[in-house]
Amino acid sequence: MDIKNLLLGVETIIGEEELAEKICSGQKVRVKFGVDPTRPDLTFGHLVVFNKLKQFQDAGHEAILLIGDYTARIGDPSGRSDLRPELTEEEVEKNASTYLEQAFKILDREKTIVRKNSEWFSKMSFAESLNLTRKMTVAQMLERDDFSKRFKSKQPISMVEFMYPLIQGYDSVVLESDLEIGGSDQLFNMLVGRNLQKDMGMATQAVLTMPLLVGLDGVRKMSKSYDNYIAFNDSSKDIFGKIMSLSDDAMWEYFKLLLNFNDNQLDDLKNLHPMDAKKTLAESLTSLFFDEFVGKNERAEFSKVFSKGKLPTEMPTFSISSLDLDKPTLLSMLLNTENFDSKGAIRRLVKQGGVKVNNEKASDPEAEITLEDGADELIIKAGKKIFIRVVK
Prior knowledge:
Blueprint: H1 3-6, E1 12-14, H2 16-24, E2 30-35, H3 44-58, E3 62-67, H4 89-103, E4 112-116, H5 118-121, H6 126-133, H7 138-141, H8 145-152, H9 159-175, E5 179-183, H10 187-199, E6 206-210, H11 236-244, H12 248-259, H13 263-269, H14 274-289, H15 292-307, E7 317-319, H16 330-336, H17 343-351, E8 355-357, E9 360-361, E10 377-382, E11 386-391
Parallel strand pairs: 2-3, 2-5, 3-4, 5-6, 7-11
Antiparallel strand pairs: 1-6, 8-9, 8-10, 10-11
Helix pairs in contact: 9-10, 11-14, 11-15, 12-14, 14-15
């Protein structure tokens, strides 16, 4: 694969000339991508960069997946307007243990170099840490847009957050990376790595950024912190359903960034009805993490339930007797499913006409749930996606 194909879809590339020279000379470049295990799940926001790393891997280059188990305890301040919650070592380790299994759904396990930055930072002395801080000034740190905004608005910035770009940059020194890839919000951090390598007399890494994927809210970037994400570990039903909840405008970016569709392919899709195009997107992404059979099955199931108004083939089943209440109500039954954050959310949905019992709109959240004589079950539909089978 030539350099032009490897750079398709890239937002920013620094050091392109040196990188092209290495690749064209037949050199195998070391490509670094780091992820901090701040939550248990990788998201489709990560998938944008994983796809690019996989491209380099398939072209014969060394893919280095860096698990930032040490940096996760600090929390990346990129794009943040406040402090991140502090994680314990145990929480980080638990999250990190799930990352590799998820990453290898995209990357070739046999061809991926996996490192953790605790390997070197846990051994770094305080004197070495202080020496690292000499590499940048406070003025340089405040050039970062997010730090600058927080400083001007008198939002706290901890000293350890100031250290984060240096720590991420030092990873590149240790790994001797030729190229670091990440989201566009990582540009500052990755350039620090390039500068540190130069300062230490090393060959400098190229820096490549990919566009940020907008989250399910259609406003902010997809992030675990914003809870607007699709996870690698989501069920096939959840992946398909979440994709179908996207706005029509957002789905074209998903085609480009997650499936690498080119302009000609997008033009063909835009001739379809938006709903059909979105089903194609949902089926393709579901198939990527499962297989084509599962993708097609989820599409058929979605059409059955949402396009034709039929009941889903599978529904969670709840027993009235399991509630152990004298008078089981619609409110208590829905709360028991753990699909709702509060009783208030259920009451609002009922008031809005969003709850049906056996296809009849419910008007009273306190109505008793009972089965009619001779009936084995009843069906509760809450909102567009929640279906519950209730038995005795």
